[in-house]
Amino acid sequence: MTRQGAYKESDDMLIDEPKLPQQGQIAALPNEFNPSYLKIYYSKLFPHADLYRWMSYGNDGKHPACDSSYLGRREFSYTLDNDIFVRYNTFNSATELENSIKDKCPLKIDIGPIYNLNPAHRNAYAGDNVLTPVERELIFDIDMSDYDDVRYCCSGADVCLNCWPLMTVAVKVIDTSLRDDFGFRHILWVYSGRRGVHCWVCDRKARRLTNEQRAAVADYFRVYKGNENNYKKVSLMGQVLHPFLARSYTEVLKEYFETKLLTSQNLLSSEERYEKILEMIPDQSIASELRGKWQESRRSSSAKEDINIVRWEQLKQLLQKHKAQGVRRCVEEIVFTYTYPRLDMEVSKHMNHLLKAPFCVHPKTGRVCVPINPNNCEEFDPTTVPTLIQLLEELNREGLRSDVEGEWNKTSLANAIKLFRSSFLQPLLKICKEEMESSYNAKLQQSKNLLSW
Amino acid sequence: MQVVRSHQSHRSFSSSSGSVSASPTLPLYRSAPELEVRLEDFESFAIDRLRVLKGISDGLSRGKKPDEMEKLVNELWKTNMRHQDSSQVLNKDIISHFVLRLVYCRTEELRKWFLSMESALFRHRFRNQTAEAQRAIMEEFDLPCKAVSNAEFESLKEKLGQVARSIGHNLSLSTTDAIYYKVPFEEVPELVTGRKVFINQGYAYVAMNQVVSLVATIFRSLLSKALILTNRKWATSIREQEQHRLTPIVEALCSSYLGPDFSQPKEYGEISLKDIDQVAKSSFPLCMRHLFEKLREDHHLKHAGRMQLGLFLKGVGLNVDDSLAFWREEFSKKVGLEKFEKEYAYNIRHNYGKEGKKTDYTPYSCQKIILSTPGVGDHHGCPYRHFGEENLRAALSRMGVNSRAMEDVMGKVRNRDYQLACTLTFEALHAAPCDAGINHPNQYFSDSQRLLKAKKDSSTNVVDASTSSMHRLDAGNLLRNIRGNS
């Protein structure tokens, strides 16, 4: 569905746009955007060229090994106003991509897989299932609402600094494993705009994984198996933990649980909350002992030490010296239940799953889906992510000062785009180029070696 | 001889022209050998192998553990795949496999079953091979695994040991015993899934016993592709060419083993798991059929439903082990194995008088069932009483009751003569009178089975006499066609 319409000269539309919010009016405006703000965003701030270069994976050059059909076989889908959803948009050049986005102004852009043929031609072929995905990044989607049973500060769509550490934990655990265990290097973490994070693994090997292999990786990460019937949703069997779980526990989970979540979520401070944890202890006598202790101490709580920490120590003491391993292991199970990443399996398992593109604006919050640096993800603050209105205001302030980089460089989006480029895009494109050259040279060598007829 | 080529370009397989297989005792069935086989061997070899596969299928559905399965497979193989001429044992193995390919290539369901059983068989036989033979087979399959060097092993010993202990293997880690292979993680998804391997920098470190899994996966995928090709060949040429000779054998082989097994002594006094779906359709009264279908559909039944159906099945002849296997198979799909064992298995054994006060409960009679009061989410009770008219009509027509009989039945229902309604249904479906009337679901069942057996005994034998002629045939030619790569 590539369109080559006539486009208005983009500059004309913008600066004189009467709907551009004036300074001082911002406070009066709702925090959600309206479509005309999006138009400005796509016109001046959205990094079209970066998206194009990423999606091309090096095939946009002049090198003879470049596959000029590559980008055109990638599906993009748009969510337009009035909940209209348009699939199978494809583009063959940077200009087509940019113009389409500026023209259509989608509320959301999703990126799909690369198919065996250009999806625009899918109806030209007879037979079912003629269009099959051949490449797709390995993706993960972690959503805070999946943790509702272990966070008390918010629920559903809300997110705050008390529960955001759960996302930090998820990024740390998964990122480390993707790099150290699976050997992946080109990993992009993105804020989803409201209550979670997305992960894009873009190594060539990752892009070519089959559905079965993706499912295997997702299952390797899976620990939490919750449903309404189980009171115990994490079951860690075996004499010792698998090195991946052990490392996650000692390097990340334990610390976050004991120093952050225990207190910020008040996990043991009230009967309702501590019962949920006591329920997980297989030894009834220990659970009763703790219950008794805590019901008493309710009346006399020392203001010095946080009650959650005190109680956790008591719990650990009793459990860790038990002779049955299942009981001792309970400590880890509790920590895993309250901290270990909960992935959406379905997103990762299927090559044809669509995922929102980075740098989109979330319609409900107005926040931009900016990249997160896994190396200092603990510093990421979702409440300070730039919003569309904020960016427009910043643009306003900077006036017509030109910037060689682009308009975005005058705004808070600058850091996000720079991070995207330096930590992700540039290393990726470098490798793509190298791989392309080496495989091309290898082919040349091969054909030289073959005896000719 | 032609080279069988894989469809994945990164695996290039060596031609298997001269040697039959990498291992002297375990063929890989990559290509049909040049053999002549007698026509009756064509059939009997296949039947023997089918007994092995059926035995495996049975064992798996009973939830047998791996070491029990191992024993079972060995026994089955020893019992059925012998040959008086020891030099012919391998040929019997190969021929029977290829014949069964013909039989089981024809539908998706047949292929799936055959694939699962042959893979399970291969897996167990591979485990029992010598290390030499195993290595030879791995080479044949061109497995991209490299043995882990001593130096690397030393550096990873601790982690490898951890993984082993985490999955319950107490491997001794002396270098002679513990052979590890290094393979890209994507080659072993089933091991990655269960965190059964140590993974580092994109490589999975696979223990020798896990290598079995790898090899079995490749075997399975090769066989899967071969079956599709076989099917094509069968449909386009073989079936027609062989319509007077092999085709009837092949078709009889398939149906004679998937139908109900009336050769057992207590035919209508006892049913076994493999017959249960068949028998439910033909001989269960509507109340039990409904419960049975709901169980298959939802993988769950509430307590009253479990009692009504469970005791009925006991009365019908399902022994406690089969019953456990049956309920376990269904329930574990919904609530998982662990919960089944914890919460449901006990009650089943209780019904058989194996627990608690050890009362041997009797299956419910019609009267009791009619008087029960099913609520929301329940499926027990008597459908003639508890279903709305529309639902009842739909259920009866699904059973096969014609419209004339349907009106009679509905007439009885309106008069609240529920048992008479069921009797009329019985008569309509079996085209025979039931003078005594139906008073008990188990009576419906045994009457039905008696009638059906009587019918079968008087029907003619399917196999054509002319197919059991004694002349030799060039099976090699036929089997070569099966490969479909001509």
TrEMBL record, chain B:
PANTHER family linked: DNA PRIMASE LARGE SUBUNIT
Coiled-coil region(s): none
BP GO terms, sorted: DNA replication initiation; DNA replication, synthesis of primer
GO cellular component labels: alpha DNA polymerase:primase complex
Domain DNA primase large subunit C-terminal positions: 277-445
CDD domains: PriL_PriS_Eukaryotic
Gene3D superfamilies hit by this protein: 1.20.930.80
Metal-binding among keywords: yes
Keywords, comma-separated and alphabetical: 4Fe-4S, DNA replication, DNA-binding, Iron, Iron-sulfur, Metal-binding, Primosome
Protein name per Swiss-Prot or TrEMBL: DNA primase large subunit
